[in-house]
Amino acid sequence: MTVPAIELKGISKAFGPVQANKDISISVAPGTIHGIIGENGAGKSTLMSILYGFYKADKGEIWINGTKTDIPDSQAAIASGIGMVFQHFKLVENFTVLENIVLGAEDGGMLAPSLAKARKELKALEEEYELFVDPDKRIDEIGVGRQQRVEILKALYRKAEILILDEPTGVLTPSEADQLFRILHRLREEGKTIILITHKLREIMEATDTVSVMRRGQMTATVKTAETSPQELAELMVGRKVLLQVDKVPAQPGKPILEIENLRVVDEAGVERVKGIDLTVRAGEIVGIAGVAGNGQSELLEVLGGMRPGQGTIRLNGTPLALSGHGSDGQARRAQGIAHVPEDRQREGLIMDFHAWENVAFGYHRDPAYKRGLFMDNAALRADTERKIEKFDVRPPNAWLTAKNFSGGNQQKIVVAREIERNPDLLLVGQPTRGVDIGAIEFIHKQIVALRDQGKAILLVSVELEEIFSLSDRIAVMFDGHIMGERLPHETDEKELGLLMAGVAGEAA
Amino acid sequence: MEKMPKWADVVLIPLISLILAAILSTLVILAIGENPVEAVNLMVTGALGSTYGWGYTLYYATNFMFTGLAVAVAFHARLFNIGGEGQAMLGGLGVAVACLYIPWPHWSIALLAACAASMLFGAAWAAIPAYLQAKRGSHIVITTIMFNFIAAAFLNYMLVNVMRPQGSQDPATARFPEAVHLPTFQSMFSTAENAVFRGAPANISFFVALLACVVVWALIWRTRLGYEIRAYGHSETGAVYAGISPVRITIIAMLISGALAGLMAINNVMGEAERLVLNATEGAGFIGIAVALMGRSHPFGVFLAAILFGFLYQGGAELALWTSIPRELIVVIQALVILFTGALDNMVRIPLEKLFLGLRKGAE
Q1: What pLDDT sits at residue A302?
Q2: Fewest CB within 10 A of the end CB: N or C in chain A?
């Protein structure tokens, strides 16, 4: 038996009353890829932050290559040969690749010698691991996939033997993700140890040798990847049987509700984000917009929801909507029958410091039903909230709790309840299940399908292809502000959509 | 789950901060060779021991209530209005114009007119920084500070060159006519055999301030506008999502804030000086920031904090009068209170939160 590269023994960590990690022990053999899977909030990131020295464990020991090691800060982690690639890259956008790699690891006051030395080492690293990037390109000139390689190179330059990747594929297209996995396999061949944190079952099955499952701060199982199945892992994650597919009858699209013609959106920085798209959503159908984050889907939703101006034509039930100036704000959109579950519930959909009942009025606070004389009718609002909490099974069922004290899934249920219960003609849904536990995902998906079955039009934007496939009746793929094509879910597959998402045009839709 | 009970946040933290400030002040008084017990005694008797003392304490408190409410309303929209001082100065100009140039038959009508004029002038002075913030992104902290200086210079010009009566050497307006003098506490509460609040400046404006506290409370927590102001203050992107216009809320919140700061002038200009003098505000606009911080931007908190600062002002003046403690030290003590209750909030808060979490864990 070889000495494990990393061994954690009985790690516990609490944040106030929340036990984020509870008595966690794992052992990772050198030269393997070890997956850690779990839902959002299961404690994966906390565990890795402890390993990287961001948090100090309340209890437990860390052993690296057979020696007990204290990791009080990230400097110590780097010194023990641990490198971390974060979900959100920590790169300086207007520095070159080379400068980013040297940043924080300079040899002295003068920069030139460090850069020269780094350039030489980088060359060697690139050849050893087939990790090619142009060292003189600025970060903002290279794509997201390349940026991630720079992060990996940064870690390798600091002599990392153990590499931790936190949700590395969140921003990648399927083909970029495949490339990443090839790089990881190559690193493994060279004897590096890799820990891959993810909530995507597919990635675990494709890339790892062993996998540990976390649930509610505890390690529920560690198994060999070859000896398990996605279904089994999902059950271990959630603690009960789950439906990975949504049950729904075929759609019966009616008349067009939303018609978009030649829509263009220019953002605050003057960059054109949406470059002339046409799209129709009919009554009784769910149209899913697939695409890698940042290709104009957010801006499309924001124009429809009245959050930013656009140019072109948008008709709702045949009536053109104002796209800028008076009558184009969220209030006007709601009055016209558009409800909006925004992409970011914490920054947009909810006021995190408001009570649940105050949030149920958010966006609809000028509704006459909530008005009494000069004042807001808080009693009526609270009664309404109680109803919605019960119907949407929000837990804990307490209208007086502030939004931040609900879990991600229950926060989202509050938003979905507020928007769906308005019985809108068109429902805009952005990333409905981001950071939501699997149980709540099932529930929210069912609600969206139920609204469709009532003959409402639904426009769904999601970066999760699985979600797009299981909910949509029609799929449009966005890349660089254009719609690359429309497909029917049963006539396409992830591979074809992946190509469209990467901007490789298929035959005309 | 909340980190600690609400009462701890609202009551315990300010209380501990106050005690810390008091301890430090004690050390300072000891260091200059005075007796702290005697000093406290003097402050308490001077500010609270007689109706005369109360009359001053409540007079100062009235000023601080108006400016504290002004800062608090802006805080709810996450706007830091440092310009209360300038807005209150302009409010004074409004009061002077209303009282000097229109012959009012009775003080009550004059009071209504003075309220309207002071609010209008204060709001107008806040409107320019508000517009610059909302439309141009010029930071409200910078512009309101600059507007304090402009207000001071403007008032200087008005008093020296425009409103000063012919032949007077004093940069001040003429005295307001008898008919617009506001009832003081002395005239309101004294009986034939028992004169109270004699010579103290507290006047009917105090009740206007109380009313303002109630109105602001209702505005912030019971109206749709208040809802929008709070929502915008918590999250600008959220406000845009909900169809709340950031431009509109920024301007409205600042207009209300400026109006409240301007309203202070009915107390110090109309109620006390009965004419407009140079630097009539005496820094009350700045104290309002501390009052709002300590009062957690809640009108009831502002009320309590204003009384506390009124006590410190009046007690401090007494101290300077009767001991060798220099006037500057009073400012130091007041500054310590502001420092601990406002700026060093987290110093008390974080250990206290840990303590409560520990207690809760122990109980489980």
Answers
A1: 95
A2: N
